[in-house]
Amino acid sequence: MTTNPSPQIWLYDTTLRDGTQCEGLSVSIEDKLRIAKRLDQLGIPFIEGGWPGANPKDVQFFWQLQEDPLKQAEIVAFCSTRRPNTVAAAEPMLQAILTAGSRWVTIFGKSWDLHVTEGLKTTLEENLAMIRDTIEYFRSHGRRVIYDAEHWFDGYKHNRDYALQTLEAAIASGAEWLVLCDTNGGTLPHEVSESVTTVKSHLSLVLSEAEVSVTCQKTMTTPQIGIHTHNDCDLAVANALAAVMAGATMVQGTINGYGERCGNANLCSLIPNLQLKMGYSCITEHQLTQLTEASRFVSELVNLAPDEHAPFVGRSAFAHKGGVHVSAVQRNPLTYEHIQPETVGNRRRIVISEQAGLSNVLAKARTFGIELDKQTPEAKQILQRLKQLESQGYQFEAAEASFALLMYEALGARQEFFEVKGFQVHCDLVEGKETSSALATVKVAVNGQNILEAAEGNGPVAALDTALRKALVNFYPQLASFELTDYKVRILDGHAGTAAKTRALVESGNGHQRWTTIGVSANILAASYQAVVEGLEYGLLLHSQAEAAVKA
Fold first, then answer.
1. What band does 10 get if pLDDT is binned at 50, 70 and 90?
2. Closest alpha carbon to 152 in 199, 120, 190
3. At the fourth CATH level, which superfamily is domain 10-283?
4. Per-position DSSP letters for 481-513, written without gaps between them
5. In angstroms, rounded to a whole number, what is the distance separating the alpha carbons of residues 193 and 31?
6. pTM of the prediction?
7. Which class is 418-475 in CATH?
8. For 306-319, how does the pLDDT look when each residue is reduced to its tens digit (9 = 90+)?
9. Does residue 397 surpass a pLDDT of 70?
10. Quick check: 365 and 401 in contact, CB under 8 A?
C-alpha cells in the first residue's frame, strides 16, 4: 500500500533583504553569511540575499557566496523593473544583478495604477513594457525569474483589469512564479482568498487562448502563485495561510517576522502551521526540530531580544503557570498544549510564581534533573521560601536561574564557586558632560584565597560586573564567554518614594544559552549586585554540569 506524498509548499526567506528593513536591525556581511548558512541548514529552498545594485554590502555578499556556495538553497538576487523610457540592456542596476551570479532573480514591478502614474510618473502601457522588457532581459541571460507583484491587493481592489494585465505581461515574458504582495499589509484573509482564486482562474484562461505570439508560446508556462504578506493588521500569517488554501504554492516571509513597519509574515509560525496543522511539506521533520534554535540564532545575530511570547518558538510558548494547568500537563500534555514542544525544538516550561502549588515545584525540579516527593520537607521548604520571597517583591517566573539556585540551596546542594566579601561603587558625574563614569571595587574569596579587583564602567552595574569578572576569570576562564545581555529595573512600591524597593532583573548568556537572575532591595545597587552575582554563579553551574555530562 502506498501513501500520497504531502503537497509541497516552497518557502522563500527574505530576512536578509526585507527583514533588514526592520527598525533597529542592522547586519554585517559576516552576519548575513552566517544567517544564510543557518537558513540553508534549516532547509529553506529560496533565500533572498539582497539587492546587489543598491549597496556595496550586498554586492560583496553575493561574491562571497560564489566562492563558498550554499549546500541546497537557491540564493536569489532582488531588484526592480527597469526605469521608464529606457531599455533593460542599458540599465546598470540590472548588470549588477547578472554579476551577482545567482541562478534565480526576483523582479518587483508595479501592480497598482496609482503607483504607476503618481510614483513612476509614467503611463500604464509603459509600466507593462517595463515588466516585459526586464523579465525577457534576464531570461535571455539564462536566469530564472520570480515576479513580485508589488501592492498587488491594493491594485486589484482599485483597478482589477489593469492589475491582471501586469501579471499577464510577467508570464508572457517568462516569469515562473507570480508572487502577490500585500505590501501595505491592509488586506483581510477573505480578500486574499478571493484574489488568489481569481488570479488562478484568469491566468489559466489566458494560457489556454490561442492568440499569443510564437515568442510568448516558447516562454509561457503554467505559472505558480506565491504570497508575500506584511503584518500591519496583525494578519500576515493568516493571510499567507489563506493564500495557500486558495492555491498558492510559494510562501515568502522572514525569520521572527522581521520587516519594515510591523514586519513580514513570520516563517517561524508559518512553517509549523503549514506542516503540522495543514499537512503540507516544507522542510524535513528533523529540520523542523531546529526551528526554535534558528529563531534564537537569528535574533542573537541581529541583536534584537527574542520575543518570549512568540508562538511555537518563544520561551513562553509552552510555559505553564497555574497549578491546575501544571497538574493536568503532567498527566497528559495534550490538555494544555496544541503540539509537542519538541517537534519545533522548543521545550515545556513550568513557571514558578506565587500562584504555584507543590505540583509546580515538583515539575520545575524535574526540569533540572531533581526528583522530589510531595511529602518531603525539602519540597515544602522550597514552596514556603518561594512564597515568602515573592511577598517581598521577588518574581521567579521571570528569573528561573535564581529559582534553581534557591532550590539547590534548600537541598543543601548549592555549589559555592566564590564568595563576595564586599564591594564599593563610586560614580562621577561632571557638570556639562553627557556621560558619567563609575568605578567598582570588589573583594572576593575563591578556595580560601582573597582577591581585590577594581574596574571602570559607563555605569555602576557595568563597573561591578566587570570587576567581578576580572577577579574571577583566572579561576574560571569560561567567564570570558559570559555576557550581560539585558538589565531591567522596576520600582515595586512607588508610594514610598526614594525608599521604595527595587527589583533588578539581569539576563546573562554564554553564546548558547540565556538565563535570568533577580535581586530585590531598597538599595538599587544591592539589588543589582545580587542579580549580577547570581548570574555569574548560575553560568558557572551550567558549565560545571556540562563538563560532568561529557565525562559521564
1. very high
2. 199
3. Aldolase class I (3.20.20.70)
4. G-EEEEEEEEES-GGGGGG--EEEEEEEE-SS-
5. 37
6. 0.72
7. alpha beta
8. 898 999 999 889 98
9. no
10. no
